[in-house]
Amino acid sequence: MVEKTIFNCEDSKSIFEIRDCLSKEIINIIKNNRDLIILCIGTDRSTGDSLGPLVGDKLKFLLRNKIVLLGNLENPIHAKNICKALKKIKTSYNNPYIIAIDASLGSIQNVGNIIIESKPILPGSAMNKNLPPVGDLSITGIVNVSGTLEFMVLQNTRLFTVMKIADIISKGLYHSIIKTMGTINLNITKPLDIDDIFEV
């Protein structure tokens, strides 16, 4: 279990600290033979909310046995399809471990921070959307300042900030997978048929 841990994307050691933090969790998932679902939440229609899909895009090549990656720029997981995605995961996998990745808003001094903890994400909470909690472990990146008109804040978030956070998260997660699972095991044993999740 990961207690709330905060990493600053400006710190040159943050990638390796995230790697080590996640590796401790992932090694237990592997030992228990659980499928690891990396669920990248957000939409490419809003700069501030594009963190999840950007991380998903950066990790698209990360094919490993027992790892499933959902959510990228082409096929984002967002408010309109997340319930369908969760239902699909539940019916396709037995006791999967879900790492949920999403953007969040916070105080000005915390912008650029990445928070990892063993608790679910509440997607859409900044927009007052009533969606189910997601994940056994959450990775959130604080992309901008919370307050009033949060929809406008997300729309006007700097892409540079979001890209920088996405880069640190994706590299830390990638290195944790390599550290715990190695560079082989490139076959997904049970691919998830997700076409119906993204139906228009």
TrEMBL record:
One of its GO terms (biological process) is proteolysis. One of its GO terms (molecular function) is peptidase activity. The keyword Ribosomal protein does not apply. InterPro entries: Pept_HybD-like_dom_sf, YyaC. The keyword DNA damage does not apply. Pfam families: DUF1256. This is Spore protease YyaC. It comes from the Bacteria. Keywords: Hydrolase, Protease.
